[in-house]
Amino acid sequence: MNADALAIQAERRILLVRGMKIMLSHDLAELYGVETKALNRAVKRNAERFPRDLLFQLTSQEWTNFLPFTCTKRNQYRQQRC
Q: Which tens digits make up the pLDDT trace of 31-47?
């Protein structure tokens, strides 16, 4: 995949949460070609390399609010079921 196509794929996965642009771990893992659990393990092992404001977990309310959006987005861009 060329750089332009990769940039477009990344842009499609960016969400706005708490006034910040974010990417969900499963989308980031997909871009890197790894499993989500492998990405999360690597982040936990190397937590000191990441600024604390870069990593956060969605609250259950935020997740509930974004779940329909991410499912719609997935269906539109990746032709997957939620």
A: 889 999 999 899 889 98
